[in-house]
Amino acid sequence: MPLKIAFAASRAPVAQTARAALIGRYGDAHPAQADVIVALGGDGFMLQTLHGSQHLNAPVYGMNRGTIGFLMNEYGESDLVARLEAAEEAELNPLSMTASTPEGQSHKALAINEVSLLRAGPQAAKLRITVDGRLRMDELVCDGALVSTPAGSTAYNYSAHGPVLPIGSDVLALTAVAAFRPRRWRGALLPKMAKVRFDVLEGDKRPVMAEADSRSFANVSSVEIESEPSIVHRILFDPGHGLEERLISEQFN
């Protein structure tokens, strides 16, 4: 039977043009009936597609029609079916975030790349860090902090001088953003199943926002983060260009 492909594209004109061309060549299946979903855009749209299709059985194959494409394959129209049939699959578990506010509200979100806390005012944030119920740092003064998965370790985490994590490693990166005190603290590597809690200190004059893959929540008082093994995101890559190879190559660029 022919491969049933569903095409999704970002709003960018170049992505919409590509989608129309591909649908004209291969047709367009409904995502619920598709064997594979092809996402056209950049990494941000790829994350959006993965979140939106996590209830479906189809893996997602990205083709770069955006400005950043670490999670994407090169764009091409003529041999798509052959590329999909030969593609390598990577499985990713997202992070689960629960952010609480001083008013007692609770916000939940999933993050494939990272959960980050960022100062939302002119003064540096003050955070207390607990891991698996054990206090690990009384006070971190910083512009922010984040917890990253291996898949997200070359994104914001890497820009904040965090480590690149091999895709098969069962670890998370906890990375400070512009740490002021302790000044030389560069973060920690934690087991994948660790439960991390940040408490915001002096939140009235040092407000903090939380983000989970760009979903933002203002004025948080605490954030709890842990892996969500019950959810599996399946991503396809061209042979020899999978996440493991990309993560290694990134460290030599």
From TrEMBL:
<keyword id="KW-0808">Transferase</keyword>
<dbReference type="InterPro" id="IPR002504">
    <property type="entry name" value="NADK"/>
</dbReference>
<keyword id="KW-0521">NADP</keyword>
<dbReference type="InterPro" id="IPR017438">
    <property type="entry name" value="ATP-NAD_kinase_N"/>
</dbReference>
<keyword id="KW-0418">Kinase</keyword>
<dbReference type="InterPro" id="IPR016064">
    <property type="entry name" value="NAD/diacylglycerol_kinase_sf"/>
</dbReference>
<dbReference type="GO" id="GO:0051287">
    <property type="term" value="F:NAD binding"/>
</dbReference>
<keyword id="KW-0520">NAD</keyword>
<dbReference type="GO" id="GO:0003951">
    <property type="term" value="F:NAD+ kinase activity"/>
</dbReference>
<dbReference type="GO" id="GO:0005524">
    <property type="term" value="F:ATP binding"/>
</dbReference>
<dbReference type="Pfam" id="PF01513">
    <property type="entry name" value="NAD_kinase"/>
</dbReference>
<protein>
    <submittedName>
        <fullName>NAD kinase</fullName>
    </submittedName>
</protein>
<dbReference type="Pfam" id="PF20143">
    <property type="entry name" value="NAD_kinase_C"/>
</dbReference>
<dbReference type="InterPro" id="IPR017437">
    <property type="entry name" value="ATP-NAD_kinase_PpnK-typ_C"/>
</dbReference>
<dbReference type="GO" id="GO:0006741">
    <property type="term" value="P:NADP+ biosynthetic process"/>
</dbReference>
<dbReference type="GO" id="GO:0019674">
    <property type="term" value="P:NAD+ metabolic process"/>
</dbReference>
